[in-house]
Design a protein that fits this description.
The chain is an alpha/beta fold and 98 residues long. The protein has one domain (12-19, 31-96). The protein is built from 2 helices and 3 strands; from the N terminus they run βαβαβ. The protein has helices at residues 38-50, 78-88, and strands spanning 12-14, 55-58, 93-96. Strands 1-2-3 form a 3-stranded parallel beta sheet, covered by helices on one side. It is elongated. The termini are far apart.
Amino acid sequence: MRTDPPRQLHLNVNILHSGFVPSAWRTRDADPRAFVDVAHYVRVAQIAEAAKFDAVFLADNASIADQIDFRPITALEPTVLLAAIAAATTHIGIIGTA
């Protein structure tokens, strides 16, 4: 009889400044400056941690995206943001690309 280990699902959040939709920064409750606000990323990570997510993810971008009229994709270096998140959380994982 085969006994496989129980399967696990790991939940991570890819932190974007306004959401996935490119024009999300234009909604009434969105902060169009969130992409340069470290507190925004920390706040999202703390919410994810409270919701029992396993990790947060931040992607690096080599330059400004070609569709700057929609929104900047990233503006802050991810390892700096992840260090701030690590200092403000207790048990959520941090994942980044550089």
